Amino acid sequence: MKSNKSFLQTASVLVGFLLLGTNARAQEGRVIQLAKLEIDSAKLETYKANLKEGIETALKLEPGVIMLYAVSEKDHPTSITILEIYADSAAYRAHLRTAHFLKYKSATAAMVKRLELVPAIPVMQDANITRLQKATGQPAK
To answer: 0.70 exceeded by the pTM?
Structure first.
């Protein structure tokens, strides 16, 4: 439970950072979700290599992919959560059709024991923006 709280705090700060300087209208269309996975322990390292390649490729090639941030639980390394943020639903749908995503899904299908996609929204966005502004020295907008 502690690792989930820590992840959600980190995710909230990251979402706040991404939203820093944007207006509410620009944020409305964003797709934010948590992908919660349980990975076969015998295949964990192979899964992580495929995940790394897929995330790096998506961030490099897809302007509509704003963030893909993966973490594992410290005491349960086979429990992986990915914070996914897309510019809008069209960007999310386009991501699902890319060759690199389809390659990742195909390569990891037998490794994933459980997958849950959880729609999400930013929490305490303004507080996190204020914290980030102080930490980075950015003026309030």
So the answer is: yes
